[in-house]
């Protein structure tokens, strides 16, 4: 049998009194340290190339980040696309998402958007058409659009922030929702603030380049 | 094709300087341009462009296995001259591990090649291994022709998809004109910043396809951010905290070795008299025989290293990702310490252990800057004495009975005694790996080549081959387990063919010992599938491959047998029958408290 090594047994050793949280943060015994998850919107400018979305979704699933929604679409620059992620993570998690995203090769720029970011999502829903007038009234109430109205079904579109979409869906419930399709959130920073650094830089570069003769800065530069 | 066989690839840098030199006079530019357009391209196919790109970046050796989809690239290697040394491996996994070790020893990416489908999937383990350990590797894989991609063609695998989570970057090369540039970019990315493996998937029609476009000078993608310089203000603040500490400790990780920062680290620690623990990948970054060395910390690290980590009040961690095998449970890791974390990869900062003082940048630069900013040597006499006391309290020892069975630790120490300091040690994964790490005294960087993050059994032998190809003048010793050795033993045929003078020491405990140790400790001694009573005679097996075989059972024979194995000019294998009951201690149980390492089974 093995002899083992010599030295004081574990219980005979002096132990440090400090402690860390599960996020690795030193805990002040007075206050403790807890990080509650919060909802955060992250915008990533990525190269518009095949496989980007699977790289991003692979990252998210492998690292077990809590994703509320993920949307993607092209920008004014045909070479890049914007991915909007809504995540529910405590602070350290949010920082990790940003840093890990940034490491992905086709990701050009990543930024966390403030609470005042402009966020929108879209729902298309199909209800039973028995009470067209009432359906129409609700649609108007939510600034929606009727996309299709037949004898049996009515399909409407509602755009808005998440809360509004939830409310609208609740309101349509009374007619019996047959099906619905909902996008994730997509967002831009409010006002003059840029959504990502890369776009800001590109804009400034385009403005200082004398060759540009159109009013809009040329966003197609590499 | 043959007319290009003797053409050498022009150094693109040189071409560049010629262009600028002539730009003073307009006429000269014209004639130069004319000449350039008249000059025949050196490549005629995508495959030749791949080879040209490899030569542009200075590749000298490649490890691989042939196959249908990669044949055009091999053919280009054949026809463009023999200055690139291709080592044909027995298995693609071996090619990837060999390239990985080669990359570590030389500091420039190792290259491995495989065909599509099974060739590529066989590479995957080695790629994942390199990814976990941030080793620079380029994998070139053949792929079915683009018109068959997605059709489940013969030997088709979605290699880019399979390797996406285990590469730093990977590419599907879709165009014969650009394939060379893609390879060049992959090479640059593999070694820039935090190194890692990159892969280029090469469809057969792309490598066979005509092109007269020579690959450009290798460069990084335009939008890729180059590693940041450490922030001066942050360094100043961190230096103040470290100088003020009463119990300062340096934790030196694999990044110190990869960043060529061992020298800077040594100077820093000596000047400010700060004790150093390393991580397992950081072994060799600081000389283990130095009085400030506490050796390595973690699950099977020394007791004193783990005590030091647990009690320090300021931890200057460099180039480590705080793996759970190092930290144990996060809640109890360095619980009193303020953490200064220097890393080249911002994503490592506060990933596992929160860093109060993050320093992003190249390890050598950060250490140098810290060096200049340190106001004084920390007032830590008491702490240093405490560290010495721990070394005395928890020495690394083992019992050596006079006769059999031989203790594995003894074999490691005996070999260490007779080999030079710059000898390279490679290992498989298991108990033998821990004993090699514990009982070999490492004093130089890049002498400890092991599979850390992924823990890949079978890593040792092919890694030894790669290391020997990279450094033919250095002695290479592989400590292997019987289980690990059997996983890649076929590479012995390669060592024999290439006459690679390596010494493999199989610490044969007739078991996959590490598993058996855990079963005994945590599964009520139920040794399910961990004992190998049917192990072959490794000495005979070695002879069957054409290598030299030795069997070792006695203490008295140890020195002579090891010496004879070393002296043999070519690959030799020592089958060392060691005590099957021996276990690895100290041990921090998984997710446990580093300060509560067990010194024997009854303390677990
Ligand atoms: C490829 C692979 N399969 C399984 C494991 C799990 N594992 C870790 S250590 C170990 C035992 C290794 O046995 P051996 O190589 O004989 O070394 P020993 O522990 O006996 O020294 C096993 C099976 C692994 N690390 N790698």
From TrEMBL, chain A:
Which E.C. number(s) belong to this protein? 2.2.1.6
One GO cellular component assignment for this chain's record is:
cytoplasm
Comp. bias regions, Polar residues: 209-222
Q: Where is the composition biased (Basic and acidic residues)?
A: 10-20, 191-207
- Annotated region Disordered: the residues are 1-36, 191-222
- InterPro entries listed in its UniProt record: Acetalactate_synth_ssu (IPR004789), Acetolactate_synth/TF_NikR_C (IPR027271), Acetolactate_synth_ssu_C (IPR019455), ACT-like_dom_sf (IPR045865), ACT_dom (IPR002912), AHAS_ACT (IPR039557), AHAS_small-like_ACT (IPR054480)
Identify the enzyme class: transferase
ACT domain: which residues?
41-118
| Highest taxon of source | Archaea
Question: Which SUPFAM superfamilies does UniProt cross-reference here?
Answer: ACT-like (SSF55021)
Pfam families of this UniProt entry? Answer: ACT_AHAS_ss, ALS_ss_C
* GO-annotated molecular function: acetolactate synthase activity
Give the GO terms filed under biological process for this record: amino acid biosynthetic process; branched-chain amino acid biosynthetic process
Keyword entries, A-Z: Amino-acid biosynthesis, Branched-chain amino acid biosynthesis, Transferase
Which biological pathway? Amino-acid biosynthesis; L-isoleucine biosynthesis; L-isoleucine from 2-oxobutanoate: step 1/4; Amino-acid biosynthesis; L-valine biosynthesis; L-valine from pyruvate: step 1/4
Q: Which PANTHER family match?
A: ACETOLACTATE SYNTHASE SMALL SUBUNIT, ACETOLACTATE SYNTHASE SMALL SUBUNIT 1, CHLOROPLASTIC
Into which family does the record put it?
A: Belongs to the acetolactate synthase small subunit family.
What protein does this entry describe?
Answer: Acetolactate synthase small subunit
* Lineage of the organism: Archaea, Methanobacteriati, Methanobacteriota, Stenosarchaea group, Halobacteria
This chain is encoded by the gene named ilvN
UniProtKB/TrEMBL annotation, chain B:
The protein's annotated catalytic reaction(s) are: 2 pyruvate + H(+) = (2S)-2-acetolactate + CO2
Q: Which cofactors, if any, are listed as required?
A: thiamine diphosphate; Mg(2+)
The UniProt keyword set, sorted, is: Amino-acid biosynthesis, Branched-chain amino acid biosynthesis, FAD, Flavoprotein, Magnesium, Metal-binding, Thiamine pyrophosphate, Transferase
UniProt feature, compositional bias: Polar residues: 1-10, 18-28
Q: Which GO terms describe its molecular function?
A: acetolactate synthase activity; magnesium ion binding; thiamine pyrophosphate binding
Please indicate which superkingdom the organism of origin belongs to.
Archaea
Q: List the InterPro entries.
A: Acetolactate_synth_lsu, AHAS_TPP, DHS-like_NAD/FAD-binding_dom, THDP-binding, Thiamin_PyroP_enz_cen_dom, Thiamin_PyroP_enz_TPP-bd_dom, TPP-bd_CS, TPP_enz
Q: Which residues are in the Thiamine pyrophosphate enzyme central domain?
A: 235-369
Top enzyme class: transferase
Q: What EC number(s) does the entry state?
A: 2.2.1.6
Residues of the region (Disordered) are 1-43
The chain positions of domain Thiamine pyrophosphate enzyme TPP-binding read: 428-575
Question: Which pathway does UniProt place it in?
Answer: Amino-acid biosynthesis; L-valine biosynthesis; L-valine from pyruvate: step 1/4; Amino-acid biosynthesis; L-isoleucine biosynthesis; L-isoleucine from 2-oxobutanoate: step 1/4
User: What does the note under cofactor report?
Assistant: Binds 1 thiamine pyrophosphate per subunit. Binds 1 Mg(2+) ion per subunit.
BP-aspect Gene Ontology terms:
amino acid biosynthetic process; branched-chain amino acid biosynthetic process; sulfur compound biosynthetic process
Query: Thiamine pyrophosphate enzyme N-terminal TPP-binding domain: from which residue to which, for each copy?
Result: 45-160
Pfam families hit by this protein: TPP_enzyme_C, TPP_enzyme_M, TPP_enzyme_N
Q: Which family does it belong to?
A: Belongs to the TPP enzyme family.
Q: What is this protein called?
A: Acetolactate synthase
Q: Which organism is it from?
A: Halocatena marina
Q: What is the lineage of its organism?
A: Archaea, Methanobacteriati, Methanobacteriota, Stenosarchaea group, Halobacteria
Gene, per the UniProt record: ilvB
